From TrEMBL:
<feature type="region of interest" description="Disordered">
    <location>
        <begin position="1"/>
        <end position="77"/>
    </location>
</feature>
<dbReference type="GO" id="GO:0005634">
    <property type="term" value="C:nucleus"/>
</dbReference>
<dbReference type="InterPro" id="IPR040155">
    <property type="entry name" value="CEBPZ/Mak21-like"/>
</dbReference>
<protein>
    <submittedName>
        <fullName>Uncharacterized protein</fullName>
    </submittedName>
</protein>
Amino acid sequence: QGVLSSLSFGGDDGGDDPFNAPNEWEEEKRRGLKPRLSDKGVPGIGSSSRRAQQTAKRAERERTAASAAAVGNKGDGDALELTAHSAKRRAGPVVLPLCASWWDEMQVAEGATSVRTAEASGRFKAQAAELYERELEAFAGSQSRRHGSDARFVNKLASKGTIKDRVAALTVQAHESAFHALPCIAHLITMAERPARDVKLLAVDALTELFLTRLLPPHRQLVQFERAAFSTKPTERELLQAHYEDALKAAYAQLATVVIRGTSDNVLHTKQRMLSSLCGMLSGKPELERMLLPALVNKLGDPD
C-alpha cells in the first residue's frame, strides 16, 4: 500500500491516468441510458470515449511541441532558404560557348597582358576556379533541359555501367563541349591510373584520341594560368578561358606520365600499346615535347 500510495498517475484533473480518465459511454450505461455509438457504429471509441480523449491530448501536446520547434528553428529555415537562393543564383547562364575547336573561340581584350604580381595571379586563379565550378553547374542544367532522358541515360552509363560503357559514355560527354569536358577528362585519367591493365589501356586510348583530335591546339602549346594574358580587370570569360587551358595542360601532363610509366610495363602487350600511344602523342601535337621525346629516345635500346 505504501508503494502504491507513492505512485502518481497524473495531476488533479486526471492527466493521462488511464484509470481515472472519464468514460461517458460507461457512465451512460451505468445510469441505464442507451450508450451513444461512434460514427462507425462501435461503442466506446467515439469522440467522447477514453481512447479518443487520450488521442486528442497527445495530438495537442505534439502540436504544441511542433510550434515551439518551428519558432526555435526559424533562423535555420531562413538560412536554408538563403542557401537555396544562392545556389540558384550561382548556376546562372553558361558563359563559355559549346564548341569543339575551343582555341578559335578564345576572346582576348585589348591591352591584355601576362605581367602581374604573384599575389594578383593567385587571387585571380582562385576566383577562376570558383567561376568554373559555377560554369559546370550551369552547363549540367542546360544539358539536362536540352536532352532530358538521353542525358540521364548517359550519366547513368558513366557512373554505373561496365568499364567499356563508362569509357564510351565519358567520351561522348567530352565531345559535347570542349570547354566543359574537364570533369570527364579527370574521370578517364583516374581510370587510366588504375592498376588493372585492361582498364588502363581503354582509358589511355580514349584520352589519347580526345586530346589529339579535339582538345589540343594544332599549332601552339597550352599556356599556364600564370602566363595567360588578360586585362587588369579580367572578365569572367577571360578567367574561365585561362583556368580551362591551365587545367587542360595539367591533365595532359598526367596522361603523359601514365603513358611513360606504362612503357616499362612487364607485360609486352601493354608496353607496346603504351609505346604506340607515346609515338602518337609526340608526332600528333607539339604539347609536352620536352617530356615525351626523351622518354621515347630512352626506349630505343629496349630489346622488346
